[in-house]
Amino acid sequence: MSKSVAVGKHKVGTEFPVYAIAEIGINHNGSLESAFKLIDAASLAGFNAVKFQKRNVEIVYSSEELSTERESVFGKTNGDLKRGLEFGSQEYSLIAERCSTVGIDWFASPWDETSVDFLEKMNVIAYKVASASITDRNLLERISGTGKPIFMSTGMSNLEIVKKAISYLDPNNLVLMHTVSTYPAANQDLNLSAITTLQQEFAQIPIGYSGHEVGLLPTIVAVAKYGAVCVERHITLDRANWGSDQAASIEPAGMIRLMRDLRSLPEMYGSGKKEILEKEIPIMKKLRRKDTI
Q1: Residue among 104, 109, 62, 57 nearest 85 (CA)
Q2: Which residue in 96, 186, 228, 246 is deepest, having the highest Cβ count within 10 Å?
Q3: C-alpha to C-alpha distance for 196 and 207, rounded to whole angstroms
Q4: Rounded to whole angstroms, how far apart are CA atoms 187 and 191?
């Protein structure tokens, strides 16, 4: 049986309610007001945490990439866009305050080591390793060195890569997330049964699911059929908004439906004992005409 990992006041594991992460990422499009609206929507829906992404643009991207022409509301280059999407300490202090006010955890995916240092100053409760960063040894070691709980996505990876990444982390403080890194992901590519593979290969590590599909059903199936103990979904105010992750995100109404269904699953499972319910007896007396066996 997988052990549990403590994340703030919650525990992530098979014996606890599913831990749900609302991935804001960069879907705020550089607007603190939009970030606040997404935080509020996630809290209202019942998510446990919201997650952002943090980059030192000058480190993550080459000068050639930053100078590439790319029109956006922030300017005419890719660098203008990337810099415009990043929040600094002032914005994250306000984000932390907003999350505290509405009662939801927050953390982020750092894409470079200096961003880990930045997030440590923000006193995040956990870290997320993005699928794109799973092969970055220095980043893995820096995140592990914080001693904080770690969620790690496994998109664009096979078991060999996952095992290698785990060797640089503390497996006692880790939650693995099955992920398919296409945006949005087609149903035929989701490979949800890989959750079982991860559970078998890493029996002492809680296994979750980070989905990029359009609908809600695969996330429900990941929990109900395959036993994912943690789920993550990108969220947006409007899938029609500009941005690379918007189409693979769920809107506020979908967030409410998803969390309603996830939270109702445990009461559906029952005890497993096959017996006649008290509520069935009046119906049985009315409908069952013969009792000859």
Answers
A1: 57
A2: 228
A3: 9
A4: 8
pLDDT (0 to 100) of residue 240: 85
| Residue 201 lies in domain | 5-287
pLDDT of residue 2: 54
Question: Which 8-state DSSP code applies to residue 208?
Answer: E
Residue 267 belongs to a domain with what CATH number? 3.20.20.70
Tokens of 230: 């943690």
* CA 168, 174, 179, 181 torsion-angle sign: negative
Spell out the residues 6+ positions from residue 160 whose beta carbon is closer than 8 angstroms to its own: none
**Cα of 173 vs its chain's centroid, Å:** 16
The DSSP code for 169 is S
Question: How many angstroms separate the Cα of 256 from the Cα of each of 138, 219, 224, 259?
Answer: 38, 13, 18, 5
The Cα–Cα gap between 226 and 208 comes to: 9
User: Which residues 6+ apart lie within 8 Å of 130 measured at CB?
Assistant: 53, 109, 111, 153
The pLDDT tens digits of the residues spanning 210-249 come to 999 999 999 999 999 999 999 999 999 998 887 788 888 9
Contacts by residues 128-133 (CB-CB < 8 Å, ≥ 24 positions apart): 128/21, 128/51, 128/152, 128/153, 129/153, 129/165, 130/53, 131/155, 131/156, 131/157, 131/179, 131/181, 132/156, 132/181, 133/109
Domain assignment present for residue 293? The answer is no
**118 belongs to a structural domain:** yes
To the question of pTM greater than 0.85 for the whole model, the response is yes
Which residue stretches of the chain have pLDDT < 50? 1
What's the pLDDT score for residue 243?
79
Measured between alpha carbons, how far is 129 from 90 in angstroms, rounded to an integer? 24
- CA dihedral defined by 143, 123, 39, 154, rounded to 10 degrees? 10
